[in-house]
Amino acid sequence: MKNIPQIKVGIVAVSRDCFPESLSVNRRKALAEAYAKKYDAQDIYECPICIVESEIHMVQALEDLKKAGCQALCVYLGNFGPEISETLLARHFDGPKMFCAAAEENISVLSSSRGDAYCGMLNASYNLALRGVKAYIPERPVGTAEECADMIHEFLPIARAVYGLSRLKIISFGPRPTNFLACNAPIQQLYNLGIEIEENSELDLFEAFHRHAGDVRIPEVVKDMERELGEGNKKPEILQKLAQYELTLLDWVEEHKGYREYVAIAGKCWPAFQTQFGFVPCYVNSRLTGRGIPVSCEVDIYGALSEFIGTAVSQDAVTLLDINNTVPADLYQEEIAGKADYRLDETFMGFHCGNTASSKLAFCEMKYQLIMARSLPEEVTQGTLEGDIIPGDITFFRLQSTSDTQLRAYIAQGEVLPAATHSFGSIGIFAIPEMSRFYRHVLIEKRFPHHGAVAFGHHGKALYEVFKYLGVDVAEIGYNQPKGVRYPTENPFA
Q: 3-class SS at 255?
């Protein structure tokens, strides 16, 4: 995937000066060896310069990490640890950081070589809070070398998202369409998260599109589209314009991302887009998103942000869908009942016009946008990529700012069912345990808009930690609570 960070975690061992330094040295080496045995050794860098016992050691470690090209930091307590130096290290490191600590290996260490890192993690946590330093601390942060290696590996998707957001620019075109205020939200929280945003008029985009008329690269892009669509290439006459638009967006990204490393786009797609451009941008949006450059529909800025987070966490294409319509009872009986362990009210259809990457569709065809064609000539609504979304595990989620600039989020794990949708657009039948309660007491109660980001696979654990790291109050991270666990707003007598 392009447009997402590749993370190298620098492991720095720390030591309290009244404990044997060899404890931290040997435990750091054991941790690095354990990681290399199970995962890609290139993910980590074992900082060999020193064991951090003092502020001077801390500065030396920072310089070494920078020289080694580390984007993330693991502070590893091989023993009790120096609470000041280790938290200063985290404070001054420019990137996501985590803390974990060594468990005692066996009985023989207890007599004279005990590390007491179980105790030291408490002081580390206390000092991080005193200094206002954000750091990821795993659920069980004290473990064996093998267990700490697993913790670092679980930190990678969190680090990718956090690092990427601090270097992200969101490029938007045009205001939200009329009567679609639902996804509109203040951009203040983007700046609070360290994200840049460039807001443009759709007229700017229209001008750039016309400058790309006759671009010599268009035929090659058309060939690539033909290869991707295969037998689904039902609208070959529109491909040249779509290729011209794709090049327009890609060139805009390169010319406008400035000092930022990563980009997401919030695009305008109606109502004037079709009549002026002569097509709909859905297929192009799907192609860029498939390469790791998320493009949200309807100028949904926080949707684009959510898609980028999902791409960084999953290292895979994501999509943005409407939480759209109920599943008819007869379809449920024919396609789902007896085949999947979900009630009817735990299912729904996730839909958008045609923005889902072809790799995430069971089949695909280039078509026109049926809803838009009800009020516009069909020929200007060509350009959607239609098909049923591939069955399998998914995570539905969103990060959103409220109108009074408070961050809130939701995460729900479920699956796309292997059931025919009998419908149009990029669409799938989704099943999420206890969906009806989640819909009422999180999505409606917390005033979330209809757009949700979809990551393919179960990524709730990492997303939850990302949102916590970004400063979202845990009370504002909604999830689909299991049966028997009541939501605060749920009527106990219902």
A: helix
